[in-house]
Every structure is written in structure tokens, then in C-alpha cells.
Amino acid sequence: MATTKLKKIAVLCSGGDAPGMNAAIRSVIRTAAYYNIESYGVMRGYTGLISGDIVKMGPRSVSNIIDKGGTIIKTARCPEFLEERYQKKAVNNLKKKDIDGLVVIGGNGSFKGAHILSSKWKVRTVGGPGTIDNDLQGTDFTVGADTAVNTALGAIDKIRDTATSLERIYIVEVMGRDSDFIPLRVALSGGAEDVLVHDTEHKIDQMCEDIKKGRRKGKISWIIVVAEGIAGGHEVGRLIREGTGFDTRVVVLGHIQRGGSPTAYDRMLASRLGAAAIEALIAGETDKMAGIKGDDTVLVPFTVAVKPGRKQEKLDREIYKIIRIMAT
Amino acid sequence: MATTKLKKIAVLCSGGDAPGMNAAIRSVIRTAAYYNIESYGVMRGYTGLISGDIVKMGPRSVSNIIDKGGTIIKTARCPEFLEERYQKKAVNNLKKKDIDGLVVIGGNGSFKGAHILSSKWKVRTVGGPGTIDNDLQGTDFTVGADTAVNTALGAIDKIRDTATSLERIYIVEVMGRDSDFIPLRVALSGGAEDVLVHDTEHKIDQMCEDIKKGRRKGKISWIIVVAEGIAGGHEVGRLIREGTGFDTRVVVLGHIQRGGSPTAYDRMLASRLGAAAIEALIAGETDKMAGIKGDDTVLVPFTVAVKPGRKQEKLDREIYKIIRIMAT
Amino acid sequence: MATTKLKKIAVLCSGGDAPGMNAAIRSVIRTAAYYNIESYGVMRGYTGLISGDIVKMGPRSVSNIIDKGGTIIKTARCPEFLEERYQKKAVNNLKKKDIDGLVVIGGNGSFKGAHILSSKWKVRTVGGPGTIDNDLQGTDFTVGADTAVNTALGAIDKIRDTATSLERIYIVEVMGRDSDFIPLRVALSGGAEDVLVHDTEHKIDQMCEDIKKGRRKGKISWIIVVAEGIAGGHEVGRLIREGTGFDTRVVVLGHIQRGGSPTAYDRMLASRLGAAAIEALIAGETDKMAGIKGDDTVLVPFTVAVKPGRKQEKLDREIYKIIRIMAT
Amino acid sequence: MATTKLKKIAVLCSGGDAPGMNAAIRSVIRTAAYYNIESYGVMRGYTGLISGDIVKMGPRSVSNIIDKGGTIIKTARCPEFLEERYQKKAVNNLKKKDIDGLVVIGGNGSFKGAHILSSKWKVRTVGGPGTIDNDLQGTDFTVGADTAVNTALGAIDKIRDTATSLERIYIVEVMGRDSDFIPLRVALSGGAEDVLVHDTEHKIDQMCEDIKKGRRKGKISWIIVVAEGIAGGHEVGRLIREGTGFDTRVVVLGHIQRGGSPTAYDRMLASRLGAAAIEALIAGETDKMAGIKGDDTVLVPFTVAVKPGRKQEKLDREIYKIIRIMAT
Questions:
Q1: How many other CB atoms are there within 10 angstroms of residue D63's CB atom?
Q2: Which of A245, C289, D83, D99 is the residue whose CA sits 20 to 30 A from C98?
Q3: Is C98 on the interface with A (CB under 8 A)?
Q4: Which residue of D has its CA nearest to B218?
Q5: Do domains B8-144+262-308 and B148-259 have the same CATH topology?
Q6: Which fold does the domain D147-259 belong to in CATH?
Q7: CA–CA distance, C105 with C111 (Å, rounded to integer)
Q8: Which of A217, A214, A204, A215 is nearest to A243 (CA)?
Q9: Measured between CB atoms, does B115 come within 8 Å of chain A?
Q10: Contact C164 A265 (CB under 8 A)
Q11: Chain D residues within an 8 Å CB radius of C161
Q12: Among all residues of chain A, which has the CA nearest to that of B77?
């Protein structure tokens, strides 16, 4: 474990953006200033690390951004970073500026890069989980997930208004990658009649039967949430139309879910984890992500954080069960 | 012009739903009560008029709905109403309940039906413009248009967060039918770089040139608003990708734009026009829509209201010009 | 522990209202229906229990309420319920309708009544925590707290716009009773410069010194969150004005914080705890509140839930520390 | 009328801030750039004009601000500007930078200053109406008014949730100065039972009678909107409590109404008037405010714009009448 006193840190965002990244950047920069550590921002993730697009930042650079979506230092995906020659350029750029600590905010792919930097190139690196999909191990939540769920919920609430007035079947495709976090929570909190997630993908026939039975009993409108990657909202809409003979409308929420002002929870989480990341760097930690467990902040090795596999499986099953009970 | 004293009125919504329809219903029912006129609600538009699904309503039936999207008496499209035998059934259902005045809330198609009822069947009928497209003649605004623009704008604001962070081209398809009302106002207020509306449909080549030129000057993200019906957001996304070589993301807002709590303006407009419709019926008016001109409420013959053709052409041109100036 | 099979349940809300109460009612009623149990709603809390204002409800009674603030069965404070003769009337009213299970949604005071009903009168009673203050023991969160924090945050965000433009000191008084839950989380997520909570009440002098020092360094606007009950926003405004010589503006958010559409989190929590309450009643449980611990639902004796004392003290201290770090 | 070709313009905001000021600044700067005119921003209104705090701006300085409340160039009240020696300093500061056109965004007081600059000191000056109170003559709307009404409405909607659940009388004090624009529109769109505005100030006795009568008929909750400056919300609350014997709760919305992301309408208005102001300066106009009349932009002498007196009196009366009808 590195133990030299920390003098300068840099922060970068990588991968898809998530609401609350700005709050995390603000916390990183201001906590660094509090401990008399200089701060830099790396523009556009690993891309800027490679090209040397690294700018001086300070407490005033992050004024009035806690409530803003997106990230002021921008983010990007950077497949080149898997190549050693680019890693070397990145490490040299940090050395040139005497930066001895790095905070990486992002998800899965970002932490694979961060692991390379810390384990292979000995850059003291700590991560903060920033992804709407809540698919990182070792932390209860990732920054952006609560906002993304609430954003999708806002859309569902509007669709319900029109679904109830016009008597139709609405299919709403939400984001979520391999994790069912967003679709399950949106379906439960949105009062959707059903949800298509990974464990349930082959059940469209059953869904059509339910709808036909419900229609006979007088039920007139349905909202069905579909996780992207299961079948595609438009495809599900077609299958239900064919299977029931009823009209369907499809809404694909898409990138709306990545933006917007972060919720209180995401701003708090970002503020806590940004501070925890700097304090971990100061303590000489590296190759780890700062996360949340219950009321505590914890450190999790990057190699653990990026492991595949479902979190909250028991909770997901409970949520799914309640969605079905509520639809009765 | 009919002049018998009005004793009972009914209200119906027809066609696509629009935010503020509930505020209009509330105003119709409460204004009727104020003038000691009994009220009925017709469920599901002309469909309920034909089937006789007409329910007694009063001031308390419309409590706490002014802020709700959708319509508590539901709405529907009803092509059968063009057939005389169904019209006859509808008129008989009104007669059976001694209903001597009808308020129809809806758009183009709804007022064609309302014109048949008033001109051919002598049902005293006044309309209230309820459609998000603001495409009725003789009224500055229709109930729902201001809310729909603000809803689409909310989505654009979220997309801008992510567009600015990730540096991409976003294509956002908004509603609006043959009218360019929504796309032009969303593009201007959303700070979009460009907009594809009816007058501008063949300009994708020019757009690709602009983007390539902007990219050379360092510009990194674009938001382009597309009016549904021009080409389809996905089609435009494909053409721009092919024409520029840059990545595009497409968002189709769809039915989200029909729901949501109405804005202050739409609730006021709905409240004023609902009251104006009842006062017009009391005054013996029929075959007309209540609309707004400047600060005044006005009456416009249904036959005028449904005429095709652009409103606010001069304003639309000014808005388009400013969008282009702002993008420089 | 009671073990007769449950046939009919009633649900009531009591005390101050909280966003998500409707979602909880919906979950109670629909879960009961799922298990073939009849449902009743008691109007206006213990007041309606005493007067016998108890209405039949079913799955359709709770359609389209999951997103609505307030409570459709209304709530009230009912000091008379501490008198035995009123308790007897309440118990008789339940017996008359053969109601053998009761769900009470509310906070501290409500659960004291619920404890009397279950322990003294042997009414099988389970509670669901519904209060914006998150001041019940044995549950991580109470229904309404997340929404209240987000609502207050929305107001702070607007005030920051104007604070930054006009260069002033704003004092914002938020709710929270004896708990510091709301003020601490609002201050952190709102980026407030300082917060006055219970542990910090005698520090206005220090605050004035900080402001004067900041002003000398060029800082021009402050947002200071005050927990109601500490001193009163207007009083704090006066003290700071006198202590610094600078102009202050005071905003008292008040009852806005109790209303509004619940957040996704509060709707999920309400849905889970409503279902858990019915399942607990079915299992013969009584005299307990359903709560949340990590990912699990748990049962906590009413006598434990209502115990005074701080929850999350360690977390509160961490949040306070980060607020101070962020203000540097 | 001045006719020299315009080369450099400056823009300032003055007085209370209003949502949409940033959209107006953006439009001014970008329209200037479009016409190859250099732009400057004056910080803190006339204060910065006197002190020479004038910064170079360009199209990129105003990126991503169209959706932000407040004003990036800040605003202030500046009573010193009435003194000639300060005016002279201001004029010299403009001359030093060769600035030959000035856009002033603000309300009444701001335009008095602007009139002095243009008439006495021959600075080519055009104004854009930015005030939430919509109290300037010669323009249908001022930038910020639509947003302020919608913000206050959002608060009323939340209060209604709790008012309906808890059965109480809520008094909500809203902004609006001598104009009744905000209170009347908030009361109508918020479904308030009554409103206290300037023409109606001595009617609290009547209000108490209405409430007592309503309570006898079973009505249980009231929302009453009060215009600030009529009596003060707390005072009205006390009078109604004494006059009816019923409990009241008072909410004073205060400065929340000045902030927040501007509505689509305010962003459009700001964009149009910002462009119109620059085009007016180019055309050699001075001593005038750009305003809106129906679909057209117009120019109004500052001396006319600041005249006291009610606008939309007829509309105000209609709105008041409908509020009363809706409350029946």
C-alpha cells in the first residue's frame, strides 16, 4: 500500500454519464482542498488522460454544480485504454503534473481501467460508483440510480394519465443493462401491471392471456415495463398486439434517463463517496472503490466491484412478487 | 339560434387526450351549477353518447381534478359517429335525459362530430378546444399545448445534460401532427441547434454540412428536434449518421407529451373556456367553439375552427429564424 | 399471539399526513384482496374509528392513487382516543363490522394508540411507518421522508438561483421535529453553507464570524438551513442580520413539505410495508410495526418503535462534517 | 435617433432577478454575434456599470444557460445611480470600452435608470422586460412571470394534498407587488377557494362568513391565496382564525418564486425579446423597451413602460369572477 503523503489529485469521469457525477466531482475537489491537496480535472475520461487534457481545479470551479445533471469534466468511453502504449502515455501525463492520486467516477468498464492503473502502473487510484444501472458489487447503491428510477417514473406517471383516459396498452422500455434494478423499481413505484425482466423473458404468452382475461372482466388499460435488452419495446408491443388483438403504444425512454437534476439521495451519496475517496487516497489506499453499506461507507477492491452477478436478488424477487400482487 | 332556457347540460371529451381537459370539465360542471343547471358527463366521447353511458355529475364530482392530467370522463375516437344511425341513437340518449345543451372538448375530429350534432340534429352544442397540437383556427391557444411543450422541454433539458457530457448528436422526435407548434417552440426554448419541421423537410443535406463544419470548429454536441410525420426520428438519425459519419442517438418522446399535470396557463385557459362554453349555451349559442383571442374569450363557428391551414405563420417564421441565430 | 384466520381488515391513517400514505393504503387493500381478505377504510384516523365512519374498499377503490400525495381516507390527530370510553366505542365499531385486523399508518402518536388497541383491547393491529420526520425506531426509513427531503431540496435549488444572482444570505427553515433527518439531508444535498440542528443550536455567533470572514474573502451568498424548533427561521435571520450587519431573507417552507407526489423510494417502501403489514396480520402478529432494515422487511414492537432517541447518529455526524467540508 | 453603425454592446440585469434572465442574456449575446457585434456583460447591474466591472462575452459564454434560473451576470439594486456623479462614471466606463449600445434587462426601477442613460447621457439603450410581477406597460408579458406563477402553483398543488387530507384552512401568501398578476392566476389555476388582492382587501369579514357557511354544509378544507402587501399571510391567518374559530396554517412562498428553471414560454419570450433588443439597437432605436403584443414584438418608450396603473384589468376581473364561480 502506498504511504507517501498525497499532494495533488486528479478526478475523471468515464463511461456513460449518470446524474450526481457533478456532485461527486464537487465533493472530491472540496474535500481535497479541505485537506490542503491540489486538484485537477481530467477531461473526457481516459481519453483526456491519454491526451493530457488535464486542468487545474479548485473549490470555486465546482460552485453551483451540485444540482446539475451530466458532468462538467465530460465523460467518454475509451477502448484504446486497453492498449499498453496508451496506458503509458496516461501515466506519464499524471507524472508530468506530479499528480499522485486519482479518483475515477464511473461503472464497470471504468473500474477495469482503474484497476490496470493501480495494479500494473502503481497509480494510487480510488473509484466512486457512478452509473444509473446499480450493477456494481460491494455497494448498496451507485450514484445516479435513484435519479434514473425517478426520471423513468415521471414518464410513467404521465403515460398513466393518458392510458387511463384512452384505454390502451402501453409498453414502456426503460434502461438497465444486465441489471433489473431500474425496470423492477419503476414498475413497482409506477403501478405498472407487469414487467419484463431477465428472469421473466419468455412469459409474453402468459401476459397476453392475463390481458385477455382482464379485458373480459372490464379492465381497460395496461402499463407494461420492459427492460432494454430483453426484447425491445417495439418487439414486445408487436407480440402483445398479435397475441391479444388489442392496440398497443410503445414508449422508449432512452437517454432521458441519464440526465436531469440528481435527487437528494444521489447528491448525498455522491458527496459522501467523493469525500470517502479522498480520505482513502490520503490513507494510502489504492485499487479500490468507495461504496455504501447500510449507513457506512466502505472500500471494495475494484476486482470485486466489477464482478458479474446479481445484487439484491432476494429484494428483486420480493419486488416482482409485489408487482404481481398489486396487479390483481 | 335556440333560445329555450337551459336546464341540463352534458360534457364529453373526444379524440386524443390533452392536459387540462379535467380543468375544463371542472369549469363546465361548476359554472353550470352556479347558474343552476344540472350536469352530466358522457363517458368515452361519442362512443358513450351512442351507448348511453351518461352519468350525473355535480360540483363535488370534479373536486381535486384541476391538477390532474387525462380526463376523468375518458375520451375515445369514434369513427362510427359519421353514420346517421349512430347519430340518431346519440341524440335519443340526450333526449331521454332531457339534456338540452352539450359541451364537446376536443380537437378537429371532435368538432366535426359536434357540427353534425348542432347543424343537422339541432342539439345546442358548444366546443372547447382541447388538443396539444394547437391546430384549431380562431383561437390563439388550445388547452394542452402549453403543457405539451413544457413536457417535451423537460425531456430536452435532461438530454442536454447528457449530450454536453458525452459529446454526441441527439435527435428528438416530438408530437405535433400537421402543426409545427410543438417542435418549433420546443426547439427554441430547449436551445436545440436545429429543427426539422414541415417547411424545412428537405434540408437534411444542409444539416449534415452544418454539423461537419461545426465539428471542424470544435463543436461537439447537437440536439436536433424533429416533428413527427416529417421523416421519423429514427430515419433522421440514420440519414445524419450516414451524412456525417458521426454517432447519433434518437429519442421518440411519444405519449409522454399527452399526460402530466397541466401548466398554470392550460388550467386558466381551460377554466375560462369551460365557463365561456356554458355561458354561450345559456345565451342560446350553438355550432361554435369557445376560444381565446388576446385577453378575450370569443366564439368561432365549428366550420371555421376545423379549417385546415397554418396559424401563426409569421410567428413560426420568426421562431425558426431565432433558432438559427441562436445556433451560430 | 392471535391465530384465528383473518377475514376482514381495516386501514387508517393518523397524525400528520406524509407522501406515500396513498401508496401504502393501495398496497394494504390489494394485498388483502390477493389473500381473499375483505377491506375497509377508516376515515380521519381514530376519529372515524370512534364515530364508525368506516367504508368498504376494494382493489378498484385504490386505482390511480399510487402517485398522489395526501391520503384518500384522510387523517387527523385525535387526543380523545386516550380516553377509555372512546377506545371502547372504536373497538365496538370494528366488532360490529366483524373486522379482525387493523393496519395503522402514521407516526409516533398513531402507534401509541395502536399499542393501546392491540395490548389492552386485543385488536390484532400492525402499523406502517408514515411520517416525513423519519423518527421511528427499528426502521431505516419511514414513508414520506425521502419525498419531504426532495421537496425541500427543490425549494433550496430555486433559492440558490436567486441567492447567487442577488448576493444575499438566505435562511431556510425546514420541518423535522425532534429529528434532524430532514435539515441535515437538505443542507448536504442542497449545498447549503451551514445548518442549524439540535446538536448545534448555540452556534449562531460562530456562524456570524464565518460569514464575516467569508465576506472579507469575497464570498457573497449563503444558504443556511434551520431545523424548525431550534429557533425559528425568522429569529435566526434577525440574529444573523444583527451579528453580521448583512441583509438576510427568510423562507419558511412549512406544509409544502407534507404534500406532493411521492418519490419512487417512498412508493416502493409504502408498497412493501403495506404488503408486509397484511402478511404479518395473516401470520397472527399484532402490536408491531412493519419496517425496513437494509433489504429486509422486519417487525418491531410498537413500544420499541415509539421510543425517543436519535437514529443514525453516526451518519448524522458524518453528514454534518461533510456539510462543513463542502463549505470551505 | 442615433444612426452610427453599432460595434459593441453591453448587457446588464438590474433589480430583482427573474427566471428567464439568462435566456435573455444568451439571446442578446448570440444575436449580437450573428450581426458581427462584440458583446460585454456588466456585472451586478448599474453597480458594475459604475465600478467598471464589465467583462468580454461571446456565444460560448452563454452555452447551456437557457434552462438556468437566476442570471450569470448577477443583478443588484443600485440607488446611487440616481446621482449624477455615478451616472457620469458609468457613461465613462462604457466609453472607455467603446461600447455604443446597451441592453438593460429588468423592471420598473431598472428602466428609470435606462431612461436617464438614453435621454440625458445619449447612450443608445434598449430594455427587455424581466420581472416576475408582469407590471410593465406596453407588453403583454414580462420575462419570469409565467415561471413564477407555475412555481407558486406547484406549491399550492402540494398544499392541496395535505389540505384535503387534514381538513384545514391554508393561507398562501404569494409575491406580486402592486400587480395582482401572480395571485389571481395562482388562485385560479390552483383551484383556491378565494383570493385576497388589491381590489378586494377589505373583505375578510365576508370570507369568514363564507367559511362558516361552507363548514355547516360539510366543506372541510380551504386554500386562500393572499397577495403580499395586502395584509401579510400571517395577519390574514390570524384574522380568519379569530373570525371563524377554525385552525389556519400560513405558508409564505417568498423568494422561491424568483428562482427555478424558466418555463418554455419565458424562454421563448426572453429569446425573442433579446433578439428584438439587438435589432432595435442596430436600427438606431434608443430609450425604449422591447415588448410583446399578441404575436408581435413591439418597441415601447421607457417612459410609457414604467407608467403606474393596472394592465389586463378586464381579464383580472374575469379571472376573479371565475375563481368565485369555481368555489361554489
A1: 12
A2: C289
A3: no
A4: D60
A5: yes
A6: Rossmann fold (3.40.50)
A7: 8
A8: A204
A9: no
A10: no
A11: 17, 19, 68-70, 258-260
A12: A166
pLDDT band at A179 (very low <50, low <70, confident <90, very high): confident
- DSSP bridge partners of B210: none
CB contact under 8 A, A70 and B162: yes
Position D2 scores a pLDDT of 47
Taking CA–CA distances from D155, the nearest residue in chain C reads C256
Q: What is the pLDDT of residues C53-106, one digit of tens each?
A: 999 999 999 999 999 999 999 999 999 999 999 999 999 999 999 999 999 999
Please answer yes or no on whether A328 and C27 come within 8 Å at the CB atom. Answer: no
Residue D254 CB partners (closer than 8 Å, separation 6+)? C249, C250, C251, C252, D175
Q: C146-258 in CATH: which number? A: 3.40.50.460
Name the phi and psi angles at D109, rounded to 5.
-60, -40
Q: What is the pLDDT of residue B202?
A: 61
SS3 C41: strand
Half-sphere exposure of A11 (CA within 13 A, CB side): 35
Q: Per the CB < 8 Å rule, is C189 touching A157?
A: no
User: Active-site residue numbers of D?
Assistant: 133
Share of chain B above pLDDT 90, in %: 84
Amino acid at A86: Y
CA distance C192 to B180: 43
Against chain D, the chains showing at least 3 CB pairs within 8 Å are B, C
Instruction: Give the residue-averaged pLDDT of C145-165.
Output: 94
Does D161 contact C251 at a Cβ distance shorter than 8 Å? no
Beta strands B222-227 and B194-196 are parallel
Q: Which of residues 122-181 of A touch B (CB under 8 A)?
A: 151, 155, 157-162, 164-167, 170
Residue C233 near chain D (CB below 8 Å): no
CB proximity D3 to B under 8 Å: no
Q: CB-CB: which of B165, B167, B255 is closest to A251? A: B255
Fold of A148-258: Rossmann fold (3.40.50)
CATH architecture assigned to B8-144+262-308 = 3-Layer(aba) Sandwich (3.40)
Break chain D into its structural domains and give their ranges: 8-144+262-308, 147-259
Active-site option among B133, B146, B180, B316: B133
- Chain B neighbours, 3+ Cβ pairs < 8 A: A, D
ipTM metric: 0.96
CB pairs under 8 A between A and C: 114
Say how many C-beta atoms besides its own lie within 10 A of residue D120's C-beta.
11
CA distance B107 to chain D (A): 22
Say if residue C179's pLDDT is above 70: yes
Place of cell 468580454: D56
Distances (CA, A) of D11 to B95, D30, D40, D72, D304: 65, 12, 6, 11, 22
pLDDT of residue C81: 97
In CATH, which of 3.30.470.20, 3.40.50.450, 3.40.50.11810, 3.40.50.2300 is domain A8-144+262-307?
3.40.50.450
Cβ of residue B66 closer than 8 Å to a chain D Cβ: yes
Q: Label residue C2 by pLDDT band (50, 70, 90).
A: very low
- The arithmetic mean of pLDDT across residues D90-119, rounded, is 97
Which residue blocks in chain D are alpha helix, DSSP H?
21-34, 46-51, 84-96, 108-115, 145-166, 181-189, 204-216, 233-244, 264-282, 302-305, 313-326
pLDDT at B1 over 50: no
User: Which residue is closest to B186 within chain D, CA to CA?
Assistant: D264
Please give the pLDDT value at position A202: 61
- Within C18-144, where are the H helices? 21-34, 46-51, 84-96, 108-115
In degrees and rounded to multiples of 5, residue C216 shows phi and psi of -65, -30
C71 vs D17, D70, D165: nearest CB:
D165
* Separation between Cα atoms, residue D172 and residue D232, nearest integer Å: 10
User: Where does B148-259 sit in CATH, by number?
Assistant: 3.40.50.460
